[in-house]
Amino acid sequence: MSLESRLLDILSPWCNAPAWRVAFSGGLDSTVLLHLLARLNRQHALPPLTAIHIHHGLQPVADAWPEHCQAFCAQLRVPLQVVRVEVPPGASIEQAARRARYGALATGLGEGEVVVTAQHRDDQAETLLFRLLRGAGVRGLAAMPTSRALGRGQLVRPLLSVSRAELEHYAREHELSWVEDPSNRDTAYARNFLRHDVWPVLTQQWPQAAQSLARSAMHMAEAQQLLGELAMQDLAPASTPAPFAWLALPSLSLAPLLQLSDARQRNALRHWLAPLTRLPDTDHWAGWRSLREAADDAMPLWRLADGELRRAEGRLWWLSGDWLTEPVALPPFAGTTPVVLPGNGAVHWSGELPGGALRLAYRRGGERIHLSGRGRRDLKRLLNESNIPAFVRNRLPLLYQGEELLAVGNLPQWRPEAAGTGELIWHAPDWR
């Protein structure tokens, strides 16, 4: 089967997408991919084709690449978008550049659109070897999937079964030109060291190493799929609704998870956490044991890369975004008009507004509220009785009439007579 036919066959599930966008660096791999897709686009009824070049600005020679990419795209009659990104300094320039690149690709994708990248079989084999040396688990050893969600669309890698040698042959046959990134020769980078110093030795002894390692990655992907199916089965009993509909945080019931073996607990949590945060390494899973085994009154938490997992009221709760910072001073109360609370969502009054001077506040301790038929009650005790998670309590907006506590956000059952039939509605902050 020709390279064009193989490519078309792999991309067939996305032939009805609104658009295909090729991640075009100007290097050999993406040059061949763009050339192939431009030819296919002229021969078949395929989605509109455009190219996107991410300019990292990490080296002076890269300033000439957008011009080269523009000339090549003009020759193919494919529109090109050049996006410049800032790569923050850090321990790993490779990783920071990758995050910036994929972040830009995700931002530019419309609903249902597909971004097509040019990673090939040799890249897949290198990825597996690299992750094996880092001690990755099954998820990591599955290497790069053919497709995955990205932003509002999909990322597709249609060349994972194609060798670099095949791409080079195609490029020579069609007299294509491409740019060479000088940093690709720098063996101070781990991947370049594997590619230039380790890989030639491996292939000298095992000529089919790339094909074999890519096949192993496929086996790992299948194993990961099975682990995912097991995780979904194990998570089903734990995925019960939280007791407070207004608290729209990802959460799980803890008791069903505790009935599983340690390995199945970790597998289920990896699956659940994957869309929420970068997953922890093996050593960091000690945080899960500490969270799981802490005393109920310890308010345990497990800090992860992009947020934290809390245990409260028999559930696990995922917190990120504004939930990781303390809310700041409250603005003046605006009655029935929603008031944005800095770092803490928004609040408004529903119903007939009580008279008198009204103001918002947060808990400081010692608050009491007068309940009809129950007298003055301590707010802390009421919150304990209601099973409000501890990490929420200091965020609940309080409405005062003068010095009298009149209402607690989203808890109309504690409504003094002075509040009438109205309610203080709190729109809790987004966790994303």
How would you describe this structure to a colleague?
With 432 residues, the protein is α+β, with helices and mostly antiparallel strands. It folds into 3 domains: 3-225, HUPs (Rossmann fold, 3-Layer(aba) Sandwich), CATH 3.40.50; 239-319, Uridine Diphospho-n-acetylenolpyruvylglucosamine Reductase, domain 3, CATH 3.30.465; 339-427, no CATH class. Helix content is 37%, strand content 18%. It has 14 helices and 18 strands. The strands form 5 sheets. A 6-stranded mixed beta sheet has the order 3-2-1-4-6-5, sandwiched between helices. A hairpin with a 5-residue loop joins strand 11 (339-340) and strand 12 (346-350). Helix 2 crosses helix 7 (164-173) and helix 9 (209-235) packs across helix 11 (262-273). The radius of gyration is 28 Å and the shape is elongated.
Shape: elongated
- Structural category is alpha+beta
Question: What would the CATH topology of the largest domain be?
Answer: Rossmann fold
Contiguous helical run count: 14
Main CATH class of the largest domain: Alpha Beta
How many individual domains? 3
* CATH architectural category of the largest domain: 3-Layer(aba) Sandwich
Number of strands: 18
Low-confidence runs of at least 5 consecutive residues:
none
Distance between the termini: 45 Å
Compute the average pLDDT. 91
Approximately how much beta-strand content do the residues carry? Answer: 15-25%
The neighbouring-strand order within the major sheet is 3-2-1-4-6-5
Major sheet: 6 strands, mixed
CATH superfamily of the largest domain: HUPs
Give the radius of gyration: 28 Å
Assembly context of the chains: single chain
Range of helix content: 25-40%
Protein name: tRNA(Ile)-lysidine synthase
GO molecular function: tRNA(Ile)-lysidine synthase activity
Subcellular location: Cytoplasm
Organism: Serpens gallinarum
